[in-house]
Structure formats: structure tokens, C-alpha cells
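Standup notes, protein team

Yesterday: finished cleaning the Ralstonia soli set.
Today: Transmembrane protein structure.
Blockers: none.

Input for Transmembrane protein:
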Amino acid sequence: MSAKPLPDEASAGAPPDKRRVRGHQPKRVIGYRGDRILMHRAMRRLAFPLSRWVDVLGIPLALTIGYCAIWPMVAALWQRIIGFWNVALEGQVRLAAVKALVPGFGSIPYPHSDAALPTSVQWLVGMIVTLVLLFGTRFISGRALPLAYWLRFIGVVQASAQFYFFIWPASFPYDGGGSIGSLMQASVVVVLITPWLYALIYNVLDFGFVRKLVLSVMGMAYLTVFIPFQYTLASVVLLKGSMLWYPQIFLLWAVFLQFGMLVGFYAWAMSWKARGAKNAT
């Protein structure tokens, strides 16, 4: 009884296109159920025609120039919004101005409040809030667990502020008015880089010129309206709660929050169907 030939020996007499070469097996394209295994989108090459450079460079450049041109109207809008809250809050938050970091922008209006260092009562209230954020969230579970993690992170940031103001309260280098002015300066820069950010992560895709333009305009317009309300509220928080809450505002509720909103707009825009996917099955 003859022994069965080895696999390599059995394929030796087969045609060249039928032979299996060890280490060079053909790629598997059929799944175990018989369906075709499609290439993952992360491994596909992005089609980038030369005309798309208009979307990547032309849209952000035009919007940046346009925003610089309408900046006097934006500054006037911010003055009216802050002025309204100045009257509504009976002068507790005043309208002030700081020199812009962007050349040619002149000054930036911002809400000014006379926030002070925390008193012993304010520090104690902050400590209670911190303990609730750190240990009270242990009762949050299930689908709300990501919320618990976020609240604990807020608690960790506030715990560091509580420790600092307990040990070195007099050495805190910032004041309520000037700090908000600096944050407003940074926020203007965020508005200006918004179309360039979308140009790098969205305009390179095939969503059409109009959709790319709408996304950038939408993000810039939203931030333009949101910023004066955001920092007016921050000024009130610092006025009522003291500078104890400034690290919280600076790290989580200023520019970080603005970028979070831009990411939200981007996620929504990514749900729009690309032009090449309109007729896809």
C-alpha cells in the first residue's frame, strides 16, 4: 500500500496557476457563510482629485477673510449681548475690552466681574460638591456609566482646585476680569481655525462643496453666538462662587467645550451620505 503524497508533492504536477506556494497563500475573500469579505474602509485609498483642493483650501481661506471683514459687526453683537446682561444683572457683570491677539481685530469685548478668592464657606461648599461628584456617582450604572465617569473627572479637577486654595490661596496668579478676557481672546482664535479644522478632517471627503461650506459656516456661526453667553455665565459663576471655580472653567468649560461642540457638528455631518454613496446598495 503506497503512502499518500505530501501536499507539496501532490501539487507539484498541477498547473502553475493551481499550485500553492508555502508562505504565499491567496488572500481569503469569502467568509465562512459564503459571503464576500469587503475591504475595511480604513484600508481603502481615498480618491482625491485636484479639484478638491478648492474645498480644502478655498473654503477655509474665504471664510477666514470673510470673518475678518465682518469682525466689527461681531464685536458690536457681543457688546450688545454683554450689555444686556449687564443691565439684567444690575451691573454685577460689566462690559470691558481687551486687545485682540489677531492682528487687525482691535479690541475684544468681554464680561468683567470682580471675582475674589474663596472664603471658608465657599471653600466648604466646593468641597461638598467635589465629594458628591467623586463618590455620589458610584450609584450611576448601566447606560449612564459614561456620565458617571465624566462627573468623576470633573470631581478630580475640582479636587485639585480645592487642595490648591486650601494650601496656597493667596498665591493664585489670576483675577476674574483678566482671566475671562484671555479666554475670549483664545475663543476668537478657535472661531478662525474652525474652517481649517474641518478642511483637514471633512473637506477631504466626497460630500460636495455645499455641504462642506455649510458645515464650516454652521460651526463658526454657532460659536460666534455662543461665546458671549458662555463667558457671561462664567463671570457670574466666578462672582458668586469665587476664583475657586476658575480651574474648572479654564480646563473644561471654555475652549475645551467649544471644541466639543465642533466635534458634535462634525459627527452630525459625517452622517450625511457622500455623493458616491447615493446609489449604493
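Follow-up from PR in the comments: The chain is about 55% helix and 5% strand.
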